[in-house]
Amino acid sequence: MLDRIHRRDTTPFHDLTIEQMRHESQKMHAGFRPEAPAVAEAGELQLVRPDGPTLTARYYRAAGTGKAEALPLLVWFHGGGWTIGDLASYDVLCRELANKARCSVASVAYRLAPENKFPAAIEDADFALRWFLEHAAEIAVDPQRIAVGGDSAGGNLAAVASLLARDRGGLQPCFQLLVYPATDQRGLRPSHTLYAEGYLLTQASIRRFQHCYFHSEAERTDWRASPLLAPDLAGLPPALVITAEYDPLVDDCLAYTERMAAAGVEVSYSCYTGMIHAFFALGGFFDDANRAVDEAAAALLRAFSRSESAGLTRERR
Q1: Which of 3, 81, 96, 296 is most exposed, with the fewest beta carbons within 10 Å of its own?
Q2: Quick check: is 277 catalytic?
Q3: Is this prediction's pTM over 0.90?
Q4: Is residue 247 annotated as part of the catalytic site, yes or no?
């Protein structure tokens, strides 16, 4: 796969225009993802807010479920360095997660950089999670069983949205699915050097994404950009962190996992040997991607089941 992507006659990804980067990302996902499975429902929702732009979310309900059945929900944020990525590229993955975890999935089209710089994507992720927590009944979703997840930049948004929800109080997400999340923008750990070139996500690409997303160097150490730098990680929902061995972000992901565990958060960590950044959505090419999706769905099922049991206990009381 890397040989096909990094052909000698191609311009390095980080030197492409924004439009070309987005197009190449779409081509990669289209070329390496599995076939799209059928679901019971797939459509779009408009998340309207009075003080900002309306967001679009692509909404899926698992195959074999009824329209009136109150399903659990995964609010999903796609990857792409806050700069590339779109709903269509993640359509198959969201269908798979919906079916395998027997849930609804809402894939959110947050604002992208450089047109919308930091913290626009954070504001959108926070708003989207709040919207689904508050409007769950309108879309036949159980508000006690709402999880949040994402990959790469989307994993950053999911982690930060969970922290903001914790700080706000009230109803919380029941689970975090964090797939190679971007947790520290400083790039200090060894994996950033070990896998700086040749493994799809390069240091040059990371720097390009950061240049697009941030107004200044100082913003990179804002905890909303680097949740590893948040003052306190206690009180977060249980989490599964999935990583790839040959990924510049892998050491940052492990550090975030260890900080959550030290703060008392129930967290599991799963690193896929031999895999590269972005593999999770590319199950048409990588068998390990399909195994990782199965692992994620199983973790979601357990979290939803536990939250449902807790809700029943509260009702009986």
Answers
A1: 3
A2: yes
A3: yes
A4: yes
**Set 142, 247, 251, 252: catalytic member:** 247
Q: From the candidates 29, 78, 192, 277, which is the catalytic residue?
A: 277
Catalytic residue chosen out of the listed positions 25, 152, 191, 307: 152
The CATH class given to the 2-312 domain equals: alpha beta
From residue 179, give the alpha-carbon distance in Å to each of 6, 146, 197, 296. Answer: 24, 17, 21, 9
Total length of the chain: 317
187 contact partners, CB below 8 Å, separation of at least 6? 203, 206, 248
Question: Domain limits of the chain?
Answer: 2-312
* 152 among known catalytic residues: yes
